[in-house]
Amino acid sequence: MAKSTKAETKPKRAAAPKAESASAAPASGAAKAVEKAVASKTAAPAGASPASGTGSRGYPPPHPDAELTLEQAQVLYDKLLAERERVTRGMREHLSEAIAPSDSLTDEVDVAQRHTEQAYLIRFADKERKLLREIEHALEKFAEGEYGVCEGTSEPISPKRLELRPWTRYSVAYKEQLERERKQHARD
Predict the structure, then answer these.
(1) Distance CA 184, CA 49 (A)
(2) Which of 26, 53, 86, 188 is the most buried if burial means most Cβ atoms within 10 Å?
(3) Residue in 147, 15, 4, 166 with CA at minimum distance from that of residue 79
(4) Where do the domains of the chain lie, and which CATH numbers do they carry?
């Protein structure tokens, strides 16, 4: 009689999807660096797994001063995880499309159009990379128990603002103050 191991009975986790660059032409150094950054961002930040928290059902709790119930925090945490997956997938798709080999384009107009498309896709992927960095920061704040408070004033961020932008760092009042200061410096 053969013994069954835990590995046999335990379902395996799905691996993070990899960029489909195997069929593509060799990527440029910048594209490889971005793909490497994407791959490293798909793993949860240290201490940010749902099982590591002390909230109910294993979710990390928000900051004690945050005006969030534990249920609201759980919903926001799940939103952040889903958004991270969506943005990561989109960024991979845009980069794959940008670096994909094109058929031999002989017409100058076709070549120029392809370069324009590539530039657009890379800019879009860069915006997604920046958003991904903000999402990762919010997940790290969850892991540290600091989620839900403004980084500028340490005041609670309103639940409505967090619902709209779960990765936000600042309260509305502080963000408005930063914008006024930025405009003032631009005029000087």
Answers:
(1) 42
(2) 53
(3) 166
(4) 28-35+51-187 (1.20.120.910)
- Does the model's pTM come out above 0.90? no
Residue 175: which residues within 8 A CB-CB, separation 6 or more? 168
- Which pLDDT score, from 0 to 100, does residue 1 have? 43
Maximum distance among all Cα pairs of the chain, rounded to whole angstroms = 82
The model's pLDDT over 43-78, given as tens digits with 9 standing for 90+, comes to: 444 444 433 444 445 678 888 888 898 999 999 999
In DSSP notation, 65-125 reads: TSS--HHHHHHHHHHHHHHHHHHHHHHHHHHHHHHSPPP---SHHHHHHHHHHHHHHHHHH
- DSSP-derived letter for residue 63 is -
- Integer-rounded Cα Rg, in Å, for the chain is 21
Structure tokens at 114: 């392809």
In SS3 terms, 126-159 reads as HHHHHHHHHHHHHHHHHHHCCCCECCCCCCECCH
Q: Which residues pair with 156 in a beta bridge?
A: 149
Distance, C-alpha 90 to centroid of its chain: 10
Q: What is the pLDDT of residues 144-167, one digit of tens each?
A: 999 999 999 999 999 999 999 999
- With 80 as the cut, is the pLDDT of residue 113 above it? yes
